[in-house]
Amino acid sequence: MCYVAVFDLGPSITCDSDYIEFFDFDVVTKVESFRTKYCGGDVPAVYEGVSAHVVVRYTSSVHNGGTGWVLHFMGKVPGTQIFGLPLLWRPRGIRRFIGHL
């Protein structure tokens, strides 16, 4: 599960160059399956993947006037407690983070 605590990518008019995408990731086939995309002005929903693997792709440009974003990864295995890993990102350019929950 991913929860976006802070999300500011600037104005929505830069959606072609400033956005964050979520993909489910199959570790056996190494295939990413697109799930959703968020741009400036959007309010991201809690993302629940179909497996324990997710790819978050952040794309940004020099036109990004936002302050950035904070993303929390959380996972739950039956019979265990929930754990989380915060991920903060502000740099410009294409970034990729594969989280294993």
Automatic annotation (TrEMBL):
Keyword rRNA processing: no
Domain of life, source organism: Eukaryota
Keywords per UniProt: Disulfide bond
Transmembrane segments: none
Signal sequence bounds: none
Annotated ranges, domain CUB: 1-76
Disulfide bond as UniProt keyword: yes
Name of the protein in its database record: CUB domain-containing protein
Taxon lineage: Eukaryota, Metazoa, Ecdysozoa, Arthropoda, Hexapoda
